[in-house]
Amino acid sequence: MWAICALCSAFFAALTSILAKIGIEGVNSNLATAVRTVVVVIMAWLVVFVTGSGGQLSEISRKSWLFLVLSGLATGLSWLFYFRALQIGEASKVIPVDKFSVVLGIAMALIFLHEAVTVKVLIGGALITLGTFVLIL
């Protein structure tokens, strides 16, 4: 099931990039990010209430609150920079550089979460890095 969800995530992330590139034409990238964020917030809260998970809000620990807020700030910064890059750059170059976050995420998982370094992870990360440079040069 995780693989289906991950493929759906990849599909909608790709669609997001194309729709955003079209949508930001003639619009300030920060304003466009704010509009998109409002839509995401409304959609996320609708899903929370439809699934009945809103009652769990009071059960979130302080540590979880801290890291969820920090994650939200990182997401916001990512989106601001991504929309600006899309606005001034070619989508076919911005998208692969943005997806380089996979390699950065693997490195951070190794450093901060102490996840195992395997040959498969190293080769995959190297191939993603190489692919990113091939696509942008």
From TrEMBL:
Q: Which residues cross the membrane?
A: 30-52, 64-83, 103-136
Q: Which Pfam families match?
A: EamA (PF00892)
What keywords would UniProt list here? Membrane, Transmembrane, Transmembrane helix
UniProt cross-references to InterPro entries, sorted A to Z: EamA_dom, EmrE-like
A cellular component term from Gene Ontology for this protein is: membrane
Q: Which residues form a coiled coil?
A: none
- Cite the EamA domain residue spans from the record: 2-136
- The identity of this protein, by name, is EamA domain-containing protein
The scientific name of the source species is Cloacibacillus porcorum
